[in-house]
Amino acid sequence: MAQKDYYAKFAALQDVAQDLTSELAVMKDDISHVLEENAELKIENEHLRSRLAELDAKKTPELPEARRTLEKLYEQGFHVCTVLYGAHRENNEECAFCLDVIYGERNSK
């Protein structure tokens, strides 16, 4: 091989190496950005989970036994209000009167 061929091949390899180096630098920046965003999202997720835990802890106390029984009947598809007591609820549609009987006093506190 002639000296010009060696020099041309070396120059071509040097160009390829420079292209790879610049491409690796761009990839490194992209990876840094993704890792940073991932860390931020993990922290935000932790904060949201702790906030949800706080909200769950603040939930109102459990229903008394009688209201839990009415709630079970209501969930089984029966009216528990004085207007339609014992009748089946059509397509399990909610009834404002039943909900007031079960949860009304608790919500007004």
UniProtKB/TrEMBL annotation:
Alphabetized InterPro entries for the sequence: YabA
Coiled-coil annotated spans: 24-58
GO BP annotation list: DNA replication; negative regulation of DNA replication
Alphabetized UniProt keyword annotations: Coiled coil, Cytoplasm, DNA replication, DNA replication inhibitor, Metal-binding, Zinc
Record's keyword annotation contains 4Fe-4S: no
Pfam families cross-referenced by the UniProt entry: YabA
MF terms in GO: metal ion binding
The name this protein goes by in its record: DNA replication initiation control protein YabA
Organism: Bombilactobacillus bombi
